[in-house]
Amino acid sequence: MKKLFGMLLAAGFLLINSLPVAAKVERVGQEMELEGEYELVLTMDEIAYEHQLVIGSFDSETGEFTGHGWYTVDPDVTWDVIGSLVDGMVGMTIVYTNINPGYEVFFEGELQEDGMIEGTAVSSADQEFTWELATDLTLPFVGNHGQWMKMHVGVEKKTAAKSRIGMPIQSLGHL
Question: Which among 52, 58, 78, 162 has the fewest CB atoms less than 10 Å away?
């Protein structure tokens, strides 16, 4: 009887240790700071138009920001900006204030892994641009910590799956 009980216990242990275990995928939050001065480059017909962008306020809870800027070649050409940065996506509008007042440019872009924000823009005069803004921001990590894990008997090392895109990866899991 003890032998049968021992065999059943061992079989149950092996069965449990061979079952896959799912792990939680989570976004690792980070506090983003966007306030500061940046070089904003708009390109149209292979000509780069360099501007300075000063973000004076940024709400890290909502992603909304406001600021102002100017055309680098002629600092008398000034504008105000309002926009948002949510989950790596940027939308913003600049409105020229003194020279060509009311002229607007509408931006859409995405934060890249290297901190560059890149996208497209269109003006109220139907001009189309590409644009880039160099920042030191980083994308929040979205991935898994062993989404698909399998326990292995006799393995002493812990190995965790790493995936920046959150796809299931089989690993040795937590031992």
Answer: 162
Q: What is the pLDDT of residue 60?
A: 87
Class of residue 96 by CB neighbours under 10 A (exposed 0-12, middle 13-18, buried 19+): buried
Bridge partners, 105 (sequence order): 94, 123
With the C-alpha atoms ordered 70, 72, 76, 77, is the resulting torsion angle positive or negative? negative
Q: pTM for this structure? A: 0.63
Write out the residue range of the structural domain in which residue 121 sits: 36-134
Strand pairing of 47-58 and 116-123? unpaired
18 located within any domain: no
Q: What pLDDT was estimated at residue 156? A: 40
Rounded to whole angstroms, the Cα distance separating 35 from 68 reads 11
